[in-house]
Structures are given as structure tokens and as C-alpha cells.
Design brief:
The chain is of the alpha+beta class and 233 residues long. It contains 6 helices and 15 strands. It folds into 2 domains: 76 residues, Roll (Ubiquitin-like (UB roll)), CATH 3.10.20; 133 residues, Aldehyde Oxidoreductase, domain 3, CATH 3.90.1170. The strands form 4 sheets. The chain has a 5-stranded mixed beta sheet with strand order 2-1-5-3-4, covered by helices on one side. The longest helix has 18 residues. The chain starts with a strand and ends in an 11-residue tail after the last strand.
């Protein structure tokens, strides 16, 4: 049985590779079995394994006893900080984000309010200077999780007139003043639009596998994040 393990951000740097392949003589392998094996075959990963979330084939796995199958792709998730002529409502991209286009994508004739949130790179963090930020994502899974977060928000506001939610996340190297995250919510009333946008931003920060490397005058380091709180698919 063969399993491919993907590594991101600081974990990739610990190992010096973004992929590990593990082979087992038996087909009776669980997520916890793999976690134990990784600690044995790659001792440098040991201190980090208890704090990572696990994704199998781009879906978070919450039960350590979940069985793995031959050919599965497993991702170790460390703590995380439309049509051709239409603006997609969910997007992970290296391109500059366009708030106006995303606003237009969620507006309906019934919308009386639209909140556009922009997360912007600032020039300081916890008392020290920041020159730029580098964003990295498990792109396929991040896209799925953004879509799940949007659905989750709409479900949470099902009894209120929130019409649509859209999310774009930029990755790559961003300079101070550039936008890294766009969240847009349209609703009949301003309070619902504000609350839906805030909830969505909070859930993006909690669940989407995106990491930040902070570049400053003294070098670069990955920012500490939070333990993922997966969005239900």
C-alpha cells in the first residue's frame, strides 16, 4: 500500500521536500498509523505531528481511526494563519484582487447592503517591522474550504435575508498595502451583511490551509497560526 504525504510551509522546510511517499506491507492502515510511521521515519517531524490537522484527498479528517486506501494523498496541515467571462465567487490566485468585480458578482436586485472586507498587508506585526508577506496555500483544498465556508455562512443566516457570499484569497509575495483577502457579503439589510462578512472572515482564518511567511529587516519567518477548525463539507 502506497500513500503520498504533502507538506506545506514550515513543515516542508523541516524536511526539505514537499512530498513524502510511505509504503506499507499491509492494507490495514489508518490516519493514526500513518502519523506514527511519519514520526518514526522522519524524526524531525515528531515535534509537529501532534499539532497538525490531517486532510485526505483534500478533505479534513477528524477521526484518527479513519482508514486509508492505496493511492491516497494525505496532507499535513500546520496551524494556519464561474465562467470564463464571469468573476468566480471562490478563488485562490496569485493575481491582484478586484473588490469591485467581486462586489458585482454577489449583488442582486434585492440587495440593500453589501459589505466588502479587504485584508491588507501592513508594515508591522507584534512590534516589529514587516517589509512584505509571502502567502502559501494547499490550493486545491483551500479552494474547497473557501466554498464550504461560504455555504456555511449562508446556512447560518438561512432565516435572514443574506443573499450571497464570495471569497477570494491571494497567494504569493505581497507588498505592504496589497490586499490578500477579499470577502463580500450581500444582504437586504446592513446588519446582516456586516455580520455575515465578519463570520466568513473569521472562519476563513480558522479553517483554510493558507500560511504566511513574514519578511522583515532581520530575515523571514513563518507566522504562528491557530489549530484548524474544519468547516463541514
Amino acid at each position: 500500500m502506497r500513500v503520498t504525504v504533502r507538506l506545506f510551509a514550515g513543515l516542508r522546510e523541516v524536511i526539505g521536500s514537499d512530498v513524502i511517499v510511505e509504503e506499507f506491507a499491509t492494507s490495514d492502515v489508518t490516519v493514526e498509523t500513518l502519523r506514527t510511521r511519519l514520526g518514526e521515519t522522519h524524526p524531525k517531524l515528531g515535534p509537529y505531528l501532534s499539532g497538525v490537522a490531517i486532510a485526505v484527498n483534500e478533505e479534513y479528517i477528524l477521526e484518527p481511526g479513519t482508514a486509508l486506501k492505496d493511492g491516497d494523498t494525505v496532507a499535513l496541515i500546520p496551524p494556519i494563519s464561474g465562467g470564463a467571462n464571469e468573476t468566480p465567487k471562490i478563488l485562490v490566485t496569485q493575481a491582484v484582487l478586484d473588490p469591485r468585480a467581486l462586489r458585482d458578482a454577489v449583488m442582486t436586485p434585492a440587495s440593500g447592503a453589501c459589505v466588502v472586507f479587504e485584508g491588507v498587508v501592513r508594515d508591522h506585526h507584534e512590534g516589529h517591522a514587516v517589509l512584505r508577506l509571502q502567502y502559501e496555500a494547499y490550493e486545491e483544498m483551500a479552494t474547497l474550504q473557501l466554498a464550504t465556508v461560504a455555504r456555511e455562512t449562508l446556512s447560518a443566516f438561512a432565516d435572514r435575508e443574506v443573499y450571497d457570499v464570495a471569497i477570494h484569497h491571494r497567494i504569493g509575495m505581497l507588498e505592504v498595502g496589497e490586499t490578500s483577502l477579499l470577502v463580500v457579503a450581500s444582504a437586504a439589510h446592513r446588519q446582516d451583511a456586516f455580520e455575515a462578512a465578519l463570520r466568513t472572515v473569521d472562519r476563513v482564518k480558522e479553517t483554510v490551509p493558507v500560511w504566511k511567511k513574514e519578511w522583515g529587516p532581520d530575515g523571514a519567518q513563518w507566522q504562528e497560526g491557530v489549530q484548524p477548525k474544519p468547516a463541514a463539507s
